[in-house]
Amino acid sequence: xLDLLKNFIPxxxxxxxxxxxxxKNIHKGQTCYLMGDGISLKWFDLSLxxxxxxxxxxxxPFHKQFNELNTPYLILAEPFYFYPTDLxxxxxxxxxxxxxxxxxxxxxxxxYRGKQFFINLSNFPTLRRENITYIYKDNFDxxxxxNYLSKRIDxxxxxxxxxxxxxxxxxxxxxxxxGYDYTHVPSRSLHWYEKGEGIIIxxxxxxxxxxxxxxxxxxxxxxxxxxxxxxINSITYKAYTGHDPIFRENYELVDERHLQVLSTWxxxxxx
Length: 271
Known about the structure:
This protein is an alpha/beta fold. The protein has nine helices and ten strands. The protein has a single domain, classed as sialyltransferase cstii, chain A (Alpha-Beta Complex). Helices cover 24% and strands 16% of the residues. A five-stranded parallel sheet has the order 2-1-8-9-10. A three-stranded parallel sheet has the order 3-6-7, with no helix packed on it. The chain has a two-stranded antiparallel sheet with strand order 4-5. The longest helix is centred in the N-terminal third of the chain and has 11 residues, at 2-12.
């Protein structure tokens, strides 16, 4: 019954989901940065990425250099994220009040009304704005060929797949990943808004199957702190920008008020 219901969701919600189709090939042949929340960003000067359009995924709007980026679109694809409560995944599962989503709506979505936010359809009951485009699982554009990316592999699992799938649908042919640290070899864990320099944790075969298909649609390069990549192209931050990476702690990158809110999420090591 649940699977049957899921099959009907795209039909029932088609008036909402069809808004996404207006972005098809809107940036055909162009270059973009996709920016994640990897801890490598603590070494990066974001002003050096203002030369191309950037699509952030996560909490980059809390970064003090956010306004130095060219960001007409933002992605926060987590299902059911904009509800008053959430179920934690760190340690013992428990229901908590989601303080971050309140601030994200107030300080980001409602402030940057000229930007378009790609939000998971599951959040529709609790979050409705003119500057929101809802997304749901794979792309349901019926005009896409059978060999298209989303028809060959699930593109809705994780922020990296969602971001790349959206960028490819928009027509970007050159995609540069910034702050997607699991694509780096060696790979660091934790987020840029957490304390410290992260922990080296190997990510063998990370997204191998996905990248093998995605590379047919766009040239994908990850910008690393000091390493390489295994399944996609890579270039170090210094080689790409001509600047040495300089470490800055999270309190230098985020206002105290936003750090306090981020610290309310179990598992985030902010202080």
